[in-house]
Design goal:
alpha/beta; Rossmann fold; 5-stranded parallel sheet; elongated
């Protein structure tokens, strides 16, 4: 985490009082001093203020008016009001306006020090709430599932080697391959896993709002900016910033992003004062950045700044060995979420899943399992539960040389139709034959020919 010394602003017309507070607090804080509210506003335009001690009585703009200005324009700063006398009415008004506390100027220095500590704790807690809101999903439900394939194991080996480094990581791969989950895995293995993980999908943000989301803005910086907003760069301080689909970032912002990465500071829209930030950057994209650079759509200097450690996540179709473990992981997740009692996925369904092309990769697989679990009332998922395109993919991947593709499709349909009828009739073969309008001998023959008997026994728990 960043160890920046916190800034404390003291606003008091009494020079002796200012100097006394400065001397008492300069070891713990970087103390800024102002003799009036107007002077304080000037300091606020140049420096980030964490805490403020404001005297109630000020020449010109009053202490309460300065408090109002601070709460509206610098809401992250905590304010403690001071007064020479115990003015109860003023204290009540100050708290209503958002002051953390009200204290008399003759209070003991250790009392003031304790108040400042508590105010700083509230400030950090409020910032932590913002950080948590910035995360797309809870990290406990976002896990990179490692299958047995050589491709996956190679990625995990590299992650283990680079996670504790501060180096920037660039993750490449098709949409849905788990790039964000891999970034979260890197963050959990870093030297500051307790820091925030702030994920930003650049492709999902309207173009005109990207700069504000990343860098933040001041109140009144543009139409609709009714309050100050802290950007994702600041929220990620002390942790990891994950910029997903960085290949979709328009060229006007690429230069500003490069400067922010190199200098370790950002400027909110509407402010000329840079704000220091300290984070580990992970970027990801499905775009071919080499081609994008040749086409002039992506800056070379930004690419080389990002391309320190490169991870290439292969599509799911190139690591079909991982599908069984992934499918069973998602089955467990959604049976728990939907409170269903399910035993598993049939081997036939697993083979069918492995034969499919998976244009949507892991995201498509997860969505499929979620949908099937949500609508089923069975204890097992089987290939008969899958949409037809999955069955056709298996038939095309494993054609029977002794029959036509049409015959294979008919056999798959007939097999699944009989299984569905058996389940509907409580796995009673005689009742199923009657339901289908078939002679019992014919149904038994088809069950033997289509290898239905063994699967039926497994599905009914025999």
């Amino acid at each position: 985490m960043s160890t920046r010394q916190r800034n404390l602003l003291i606003v008091d017309a009494d020079e002796l009082s200012r100097d006394s507070l400065h001397e008492a607090l300069r070891q713990e804080y970087r103390v800024l001093r102002a003799a009036s509210a107007e002077a304080a506003i000037g300091l606020l335009m140049r420096d980030e203020v964490d805490l403020a001690l404001v005297d109630l009585r000020q020449p010109g703009i009053s202490g309460l008016e300065l408090l109002r200005i601070l709460r509206e324009n610098y809401p992250s700063a905590e304010v403690i009001m001071m007064s020479a006398t115990a003015d109860v009415a003023a204290a009540v008004q100050a708290v209503k306006l958002g002051a953390f506390h009200f204290v008399t100027k003759d209070a003991r220095r250790d009392e003031i020090r304790a108040l400042l500590t508590h105010a700083l704790e509230r400030k950090d807690l409020s910032r932590q709430v913002l950080r948590l809101q910035a995360e797309v999903e809870e990290s406990t439900d976002r896990e990179f599932v490692a299958g047995p394939s050589a491709n996956t194991r190679g990625i995990l080996d590299l992650v283990q080697r680079v996670a504790k480094l501060s180096a920037t990581v660039l993750i490449l791969g098709e949409s849905g391959t788990g790039k964000e989950l891999l970034a979260r895995l890197i963050h959990r293995g870093s030297e500051r896993p307790d820091g925030p993980f702030v994920a930003v999908n650049l492709a999902a943000i309207p173009r005109e709002l990207v700069e504000s989301v990343l860098f933040g803005h001041e109140k009144g910086a543009f139409t609709g900016a009714i309050r100050q907003q802290i950007g994702k760069f600041e929220l990620a301080s002390g942790g990891t910033l994950f910029l997903d689909e960085i290949g979709d970032l328009h060229t006007e912002l690429q230069a500003k992003l490069l400067r922010a990465i190199q200098e370790g500071e950002v400027e909110r829209i509407g402010s000329a004062r840079p704000v220091k930030t300290d984070f580990r950057l992970i970027a990801a994209t499905h775009v071919d950045l080499d081609k994008a650079m040749k086409d002039g759509r992506f800056r070379e200097d930004l690419f080389y700044r990002l391309n320190v450690v490169r991870l290439k996540v292969p599509p799911l179709r190139e690591r079909s060995e991982d599908i069984p473990e992934l499918a069973r992981f998602f089955l467990k997740r959604y049976t728990t979420r939907f409170r269903k009692d399910m035993q598993g996925i049939s081997d036939g369904m697993i083979r069918t899943l492995q034969a499919y092309w998976w244009p949507g990769n892991i995201r498509e697989l997860e969505n499929l399992i979620e949908r099937l679990v949500a609508i089923t009332d069975k204890q097992w998922l089987t290939e008969e539960d899958l949409p037809f395109e999955f069955l056709f993919a298996q038939i095309e991947a494993e054609p029977d040389s002794a029959s036509s593709l049409f015959d294979d499709a008919c056999r798959h349909f007939e097999r699944n139709f009989i299984l569905r009828a058996l389940e509907k009739n409580g796995w009673n073969v005689t009742g199923t034959a009657r339901h289908l309008g078939l002679p019992l001998s014919t149904l038994k023959f088809k069950m033997d020919r289509l290898d239905v008997r063994e699967l039926a026994k497994k599905l009914r728990g025999v």
